[in-house]
Design a protein that fits this description.
By secondary structure, the chain is of the alpha+beta class. It contains 7 helices and 11 strands.
Length: about 270
Amino acid sequence: TGLPAPGDSKEKAILEERLRAMQFELARVTYDSYMQKLQERKGVVEERIMGDEIRSPSVQLRITPLGVVELLSTHDQLLGGPSGQSYLGCMFPADPGYAALITREAAKIGKRLAKEGVIGRFALDFVVVRSNGKWEPYAIEINLRKGGTTHPFLTLQFLTDGRYDPETAIFTAPNGRQKFFVASDHVESPAYRKLTPEDLFDIVVRHDLHFGQTRQTGVVFHMMSALGELGRTGLTAVGNSHEDAKATYERAVAVLDRETGAGGGDPG
């Protein structure tokens, strides 16, 4: 908005001014270095999707060696960074308002990829837009690999022995309870560098945050080897509802902050 008409003598200068004001996801990238690489490698122009509300879910699939397309899961991606484009984590399953909708669209793409000879796990990223109360899906990217949503979902499967129903977008444990999780690979603070994996286990047990097989809720850590160098770990918080999983995740991060003095608090 606010741009001159196409062909206006000021159009080029104003466009360049707008571009130079843009903030890149990586701090080390500058406008000049980006434009140099764009000139060397060329680029893709994408339509910007607009709407009253925009979210970024994904669908995970697998194609067997026999060409069977399996619909594994849906997630809402947690994004951050300067412009909200960096993947930080996910919530499972995706919002029921559009989970079945993106699953149907993903199945179409899965069948085409199977026809092309693709085998193995992959994921489809979507942008869903709500306008006038209705969600509209836009498939934006195919990731032909395991991604950031793969390991937390497998963790949930292994811990609960439950099953995901792609028709309803519901994961049910053998005891009949629905299961949800919030997961991230970016639970981090410089203060966490003082922790060891053994410290993490001790902290979650003392605060009754660990995953319990009887209740089938709680926290599971991964990427613990990055604590000493980066002050970073991964966390999957399993609950009996989206709200329960989110509250467990937030409580676990708050406990880690308190135990390490992160954020200015005194260690507990």
